[in-house]
Specification:
Number of domains: 1
Number of strands: 8
Radius of gyration: 13 Å
Shape: globular
Structural class: mainly beta
Number of helices: 0
Strand order of the largest sheet: 1-2-3-4
Strand content: over 45%
Order of helices and strands: EEEEEEEE
Length: 109
């Protein structure tokens, strides 16, 4: 099964179980202007719930390197995606909470 049709170079992926048999898959991919972080929700049967390429969580980490990356879910079934990015002058830490509907509850998107 294909999780995304994004053709850019992929990087580390994570998967986390949801609360109702669903699951989340996150991945980083090289976009046209830098590294992008994406997330897809799968239903109990493994069908993509957010379109063919999931949702864009964070765009364009130009020149950065993603480290300390994790994906978990909370009691409400939301995905929590955390990672740090080396920007050349130090680490920047990001945390996002995304609802089962794909709404950004934390973070700027």
């Amino acid at each position: 099964m294909m999780i995304s049709s994004v053709t850019e170079e992929g990087a580390d992926t994570k998967i986390a179980p949801g609360t109702n048999g669903d699951s989340y898959v996150s991945w980083a991919a090289m976009g046209s202007s830098g590294l992008d972080m994406r997330l897809q929700r799968l239903d109990l049967l493994g069908n993509a719930m957010w379109g063919p390429d999931g949702i864009l969580v964070r765009e364009d980490f130009s020149g950065g390197m993603v480290t300390q990356y994790d994906l978990v879910t909370d009691h409400a079934g939301a995905a929590i995606l955390t990672f740090s990015v080396w920007s050349g002058s130090g680490f920047v830490v990001y945390a996002y909470r995304i609802s089962p509907d794909g709404d950004m509850l934390w973070g700027d998107g």
